[in-house]
Every structure is written in structure tokens, then in C-alpha cells.
Write a structure and sequence with these properties.
This protein is an alpha/beta fold. It is built from 11 helices and 14 strands. Helix 5 packs parallel to helix 6 and helix 8 packs across helix 10. The protein binds succinic acid (SIN).
Length: about 300
């Protein structure tokens, strides 16, 4: 029988329709900066089926002191510290531009108190350009960034406070830096989360090769890239088995094969992160290669792979 010439990659994540299953990890692809480099060509062939913004905070933040990056074998450590224009700056300066890329927009937000999360969610959700909101309770690089996301009871309480504010999808970004991420995921679902995304970076450090001190200005950071992929796959699988809400899987995806591994581990859709730093068209390559990768593994559709169970 002749091989089908193409496989339909259309899918959805908590009601947001997507042309395909490839997102970006928050903070790994600056679409506004990329547009300055690539011009309208970026819009014509956008690398992702859904764009996730850099994490927005209530007030402007300068981020962490340098150095902020360290390359490792098969990965990198970042300690960026969520620099950004703050909520008002984002709404006034960035949101219109991000809405021009023609794909659904998920805005990532982070706060260190519930009241600020409430304001962030209310203000962002009120904008028509925004399809969903990701709650970053897993950044290892800011003081208190992890406190909520490390504790199931705190995560559930946060979700219960935020759930009544909007009907738009709320996605909880999970940390891998706990013994049992599925317990946090279960709590997020109990509190009303529509999806979880995972993994954020794994706590890590680097030592300056020339003097006896930590390389990163903040002392430590978070490891990402292919080095963390096996950890991410194990955690995605454990979480996908524990919750009924969809999982957005990421952690060292470099190509369509590794993207498909996450789908088979239980992720509904995937996100490309660190690879975007090496190749800003990595998302295009992952998308373009998925039909062939699906066929190689014997799937006639993306949906078949999404519902496959691992042996
Ligand atoms: C950062 O800006 O430090 C990285 C964001 C994150 O880990 O959530």
C-alpha cells in the first residue's frame, strides 16, 4: 500500500486548537528579537504551533548578575533570574507584537505571593490575544521561585485561589527538583489546573575554571538540554500516569525523534527549549520531521501516538 504523503499533526491542548504539537519552552525563544533578525519570514514559517512567552512578573526585574550561562557536555546551565519589563511593560510593549505571529499565545507568569499571582492572571487573561496562562512555580533562579511548586498543598492552594479568576486554560509549570513531581501534578489538578508543563531546569552549578569560585553570578542555576532528557522522560511518564489533565513535555528535545519520545512517554504536546539557542529554527525542524518520525514508528497519525501506551 502506498505510504500516505502526509500526516495531519493538528491537535489541541486544553481546548486550544493547534496546527501541530510543537511549542517553545518559556524563555527559550525571544520571538520579538527573532523578528528583528528574520523579518516577516518568521511569521510566514513560525517555528512553533503555539508560543509561550518569557515569564512575566508584577514589577520590572533586572535579572541575576553575570555570568548567567554555562555550557555543559550536552546541555547548559542558566541563571537568568527572570529579567523583564514587568506586567505593565509587557502588556504595553510586548503583547501586540507577540499576537502577530498567528499562533495561540500562552503567557507565563510568576509571583512570590498569591495576591500578585491573582493580579497577573486577571490582567493577562483579560486580553483577547491570550489563549492561556502558564504559572511558573518552578524557576530555580529567583528567591522563592520554587516554594509553591515544591509542595503539593501550596500548589493546590494557589490553584484554588486562581481558578475562579478566569475560564482560560491554566497550565502549571512543574519543577523536576522534587522527589515525586507527580504529587505536585495531582495537587495542581485537584486545584483546577487544565494542564501541567514539565520539566523546568534541574538545579545545577559550575565552578569557574580559572579561579576558585562559582561561575554563575547567582552561585547556581538550572541545567537543561539533552543531558536532562532521560530525567524528563521518566518524570513525564510518572506524571502522565497520575493525572487526567494533559502534559506539555519538554527537556532536551533536539529533533522530531526526541519530541516523539515525549509523546510516547505520555505528553500530549511537546516544547523545544535549549535547542532554540543553538538553532533558532529548531522548532521548524522538529515539526517538519514529525510525519516521517511517526511513520518510522508505525503510526498513521499523531493521535495514534498520543494514545499509545508504552510496553
Ligand atoms: C530564568 O529566567 O532564570 C529561567 C526561568 C525559569 O527557570 O523558569
Amino acid at each position: 500500500m502506498a505510504e500516505p504523503s502526509s500526516i495531519d499533526l493538528a491537535t489541541e491542548i486544553c481546548g486550544i486548537g493547534l496546527d501541530g504539537p510543537v511549542l517553545n519552552g518559556s524563555g527559550t525563544f525571544d520571538a520579538l528579537a527573532a523578528r528583528k533578525v528574520f523579518g516577516d519570514a518568521l511569521i510566514e514559517d513560525f517555528p512553533f504551533d503555539c508560543y509561550v512567552s518569557k515569564t512575566i512578573t508584577m514589577n520590572p526585574r533586572p535579572g541575576n548578575p553575570p555570568y548567567r550561562l554555562w555550557e555543559t557536555p550536552s546541555g547548559m546551565i542558566n541563571s537568568i533570574g527572570l529579567p523583564g519589563p514587568g506586567l505593565e511593560g509587557f502588556l504595553a510593549r510586548d503583547l501586540d507584537g507577540l499576537a502577530e505571529f498567528g499562533v495561540p499565545l500562552i503567557v507565563s507568569v510568576m509571583a512570590d505571593q498569591v495576591e500578585d499571582f491573582e493580579v497577573l492572571v486577571a490582567r493577562v487573561a483579560a486580553r483577547d490575544e491570550v489563549a492561556g496562562i502558564e504559572l511558573n512555580v518552578s524557576c530555580p533562579n529567583v528567591h522563592s521561585g520554587l516554594i509553591v511548586g515544591e509542595q503539593p498543598s501550596e500548589t493546590e492552594a494557589l490553584m484554588k485561589a486562581l481558578r475562579p479568576i478566569t475560564e482560560k486554560p491554566l497550565v502549571v509549570k512543574l519543577t523536576p527538583n522534587v522527589a515525586n513531581p507527580h504529587e505536585v501534578a495531582v495537587a495542581a489538578e485537584a486545584g483546577g489546573a487544565d494542564a501541567v508543563s514539565m520539566i523546568n531546569t534541574v538545579k545545577a552549578a559550575a565552578i569557574d575554571p580559572t579561579v576558585n569560585r562559582a561561575w554563575l553570578g547567582a552561585g547556581a542555576g538550572g541545567l537543561s538540554g539533552p543531558a536532562v532528557r532521560p530525567i524528563a522522560l521518566a518524570q513525564v511518564r510518572a506524571v502522565a500516569e497520575a493525572v487526567t489533565i494533559p502534559v506539555i513535555g519538554m527537556g532536551g528535545i533536539t529533533d522530531s525523534e526526541s519530541a516523539l519520545e515525549f509523546i510516547l512517554a505520555g505528553a500530549r504536546v511537546v516544547a523545544v527549549g535549549t535547542e532554540n539557542f543553538r538553532d533558532p529554527r529548531a522548532g521548524n525542524a522538529v515539526k517538519d520531521g514529525l510525519p516521517a518520525a511517526l511513520r518510522r514508528r508505525g503510526f498513521a497519525s499523531l493521535a495514534e501516538a498520543q494514545s499509545a501506551t508504552l510496553g
